[in-house]
Each structure stands twice: as C-alpha cells, then as structure tokens.
Design goal:
Helix 4 (130-152) crosses helix 6 (239-260), helix 4 (130-152) packs across helix 12 and helix 5 runs parallel beside helix 11. The protein has helices at 55-58, 116-121, 123-126, 130-152, 192-202, 239-260, 262-268, 284-291, 301-315, 364-373, 382-389, 402-410, and strands at residues 16-29, 32-38, 43-48, 66-75, 90-101, 156-157, 163-164, 176-178, 184-187, 204-212, 225-234, 281-283, 319-323, 344-349, 352-359, 395-401, 423-424, 427-428, 430-431. By secondary structure, it is of the alpha+beta class. One of its GO terms (cellular component) is cytosol. It catalyses: tRNA(Asp) + L-aspartate + ATP = L-aspartyl-tRNA(Asp) + AMP + diphosphate.
C-alpha cells in the first residue's frame, strides 16, 4: 500500500492507510497502547487496541523507533477532540506495525529543557524535539522569503567562494588554510568583494553564503561560522536606496514567516515582530542624543537594546536604522558622507544588530587611495580592483545575519540555539576540550 503523509490523513477518514515515521510519544493505558507519530508533514495519535494483531509488535516499541504502520483513520468522539493539536480530531486505529529501525533508550526526554551544552552535545537527538524542529523550520522560511523578496526586486543569485586569497574586511580575524604551491588561502569573512565585482555584470545580486570569523569571542551573539544573506545593487543615489530595498526584504520576510508559522510564535510565547509604517532612521549622534548618553563611535549592546525599545514605543517598530557611523570605524570600501562620517548603516532588531550596509566607493582612484590610507597594499587587491578600472556604477549593499535574525525572531537567549551545528572558540560539534576523548 502506498505511503500516506500524516498531514493528509484528514482526507482519508474511514480508509485504511499506511504511514511511515517516528514514534514521538508512547503512552500505555490499561491494555491499550497509544502512540504519537510524526513525519515531515505533521503528527497524529495512533492506538493499538487489546485484540489487535499489532498488540504483540507494539510491546517493545519505544520513542524514536522508525515504523511503517497500517491502520484505519477514525474521527475522534467529540469529547476527545483536541482543537489545539495537529490532527486533534482524528485517530489512527493501528492494525499492523513493522519496525524499520530501532532506537536506544534516550539519554533524556527529547522535549525536556536542557542546558545549552547538553542541547548541542546531543544535537542529532535534540533537533528532533518540537522546539528544534520549530526553530529550523522558521529559519528555512526566513531564507525562502528573503530570497523571494530579492528576486521580486530583480536581484540575481550567485554563489560566492568560501576560499579566498585575502581578507575582504581588511583586518578581520581570519582562518588560514594551507593551499597548493605552498600558498596560504583563507576562509572567507565576507562575500563583499565578489558582490561588488558581480554588480559590474548584473547590477543587482545577492548571495546566501557561509562565512568564517576567527574572533576569540565567547558571547551569546558570536559564532565562528555563520550564514550571511548579502545583496549589492548598482545605480543608487546613496545608501537610502539600499535601506529601502532591505526594508522591503525584511517586511516581506516577517510577513511570510508570520503567515506560515503562527503556531510556532504561539508555542514560543513571542509576538510577531512589529513593522510600523516605516522603520525609523536615526544617525548615530541622534541615537545617542535620544538616549541621553555621551557620543561614541559605535553603540554598546545596552544602547542597542534601549534604542530598540524607543523605536517600538514611539514608532511601533521592532526595527530601527542607525546611520552615519565614523568612516574610520567602517570597512575600507565604505563611502564617506563628509570628512568624518560614512554612508554606512546598521539595522537593529529587538536590541541586536542583524544587518550592516553602506554605499560603497565606486571610483578606482578613490578606492586605491582608501586602501593605502588604511595601510594596505593595493597590489594585493589587484583582482578586485579590476572591476573599478573598467567602470563601476555608484553602488551599495548590505548583509543580514541569518542566525541573529532567527534568534531575535523567536526570542532565543543564545545565537547558538539558532544554529544547526554551531562552531565557536569552544566547539566543533562537540566541546573542543572533550574532542580527543570523543568517539
């Protein structure tokens, strides 16, 4: 009999079906055995009655066993309907059970709340929890919606290299890789230089890229490997054009995720992000003035949280743009607005910077001068500078951190929980302090 997805069982009431999936929960009630089954589409309750041919096979079945189950789809009695559960109005009366794969006894209930190290040490198991599946279903939808919005805005997708010959940020901490001919390559800290090159061919481009930062930071917001959703666009007037394109993408993404995952927001007890009529925009100086704090070259985490509270209170927006950062504090390719401040911006979301962008320098001579000004050698950027030698339009772009966006969307306490397999200064799958003794 052909497999039926659990999500389609509501259309099969009264029929005998075959489902395949995992045992999510087992409950013994007198001589009856109840199971909650799950597959990629949904969950459903199944019951093995005392006289069923399946009762013997059901005796040894444990949580996370992989089964092929045959049964009849029945409507539940009105008093047993659970309106808040998936398939809460139906039940599968099981007649046959075939074990496809057994599972050992779990080290802890997979939906039990555990500390972060335990969660990550047991990632192959904890991913199967409702919380784990929720987080990464939302994250997948963020990527889909962000990509769809950029396509709608006429951006072209491209794949940026992960192995590069130099540092795109001009001073970021990098991971070195032994390469051919006794050369050193680096893991990319950003797709930035390649985005700009691509503007010369396609005008508007985006890439969703893995990047690597060798920063020795052990905070709730830092990772050594992360996913950046980058775009770059040509023929702009200034950075405000980039900010408008970004705001459209963020609005489209939040709207789509909210429509697809209202149940997840409910389970996590978090509100759908507020978008307001328009994301408020403050210069860095205005932000500090609004908070009544002395001017600085950047915003502290406390200031980021406080200005986001202001944006929500005054503009009904969980998002706020901060502009006009000092040029010296931004990447070398950032256009200056005047002698001291740049045409760069950050987008803050619920107290955390999730995006950074800018108008870029587009004239060859100015770019070479800036590289020299930063104490770097233009010859090391020769490949990149070709794009500026042969005509580069005024352009700009930005980069959104996927894990940070997910973290704040769902109100998570640590960015590592929003990362499938996080890498940081202490961990590659397992804690590095335990790596030598691991299997």
């Amino acid at each position: 009999m052909e497999r039926t997805l659990i999500g389609d069982l509501n259309t099969k009431v009264g029929e005998t079906v075959t489902i395949e999936g995992w045992v999510d929960v087992r409950r013994d009630q007198g001589k009856m055995v109840f199971f909650d089954f799950r597959d990629r589409s949904s969950k459903v309750q199944g019951v093995v009655l005392p006289g069923s041919d399946a009762i013997e096979a059901a005796k040894d079945v444990k949580v996370e066993y992989v089964l092929r189950v045959v049964g009849v789809v029945n409507k539940r009695p009105e008093k047993n309907v659970q309106v808040d559960k998936q398939n809460g109005d139906i039940e599968l009366e099981i007649t046959q059970i075939e074990v496809l794969a057994e599972a050992e006894t779990l080290p802890f209930p997979k939906d039990e709340e555990v500390n972060l190290d335990t969660l990550l040490d047991n990632r192959p198991l904890t991913l199967r929890s409702q919380r784990g599946r929720d987080i990464f279903a939302v994250q997948a939808s963020i990527v889909d919606a962000y990509r769809a919005s950029l396509k709608q805005q006429d951006f072209t997708d491209f794949q940026a290299p992960a192995l590069v010959g130099g540092d795109a940020e001009g001073g970021a901490a990098v991971f070195k890789v032994d390469y051919f001919y006794d050369q050193t390559a680096y893991l990319a800290t950003s797709p930035q230089l390649y985005k700009q090159i691509m503007v010369g061919a396609f005008e508007r481009v985006y890439t969703i890229a893995r990047i690597f930062r060798a920063e020795k930071s052990a905070t709730t917001r830092h990772l050594s490997e992360l996913t950046q959703m980058d775009f770059e666009m040509g023929f702009i007037t200034d950075e405000s054009d980039v900010m408008r394109a970004l705001e459209i993408a963020i609005r489209d993404t939040v709207t789509s995720v909210a429509e697809l995952h209202s149940d997840v927001f409910s389970r996590f007890g978090v509100a759908v992000p507020k978008l307001g009529k328009q994301f408020p925009v403050l210069t860095l100086a205005e932000a500090h003035q609004t908070l009544g704090v002395p001017p600085e070259d950047d915003m502290t985490p406390e200031h980021e949280r406080a200005i986001c509270e202001w944006a929500l209170r005054e503009h009904d927006s969980d998002f706020v743009f901060i502009t006009r950062f000092p040029t010296a504090a931004r990447a070398f390719y950032t256009m200056s607005a005047d002698e001291t401040v740049s045409r760069g911006f950050d987008l803050l979301f619920r107290g955390l910077e999730i995006n950074s962008g800018a108008q870029r320098i587009h004239k060859y001579d100015e770019m070479v001068a800036r590289i020299k000004e930063r104490g770097m050698d233009p010859e090391k950027f020769g490949f990149y500078l070709q794009a500026f030698k042969y005509g580069m339009p005024p352009h700009g772009g930005c980069s959104t951190g996927l894990e940070r966006f997910t973290m704040k969307m769902l109100g998570l306490a640590n960015v590592k929980e929003a990362t499938l397999f996080p890498r940081d200064i202490n961990r590659i799958d397992v804690l590095l302090s335990r790596a030598e003794g691991s299997d």
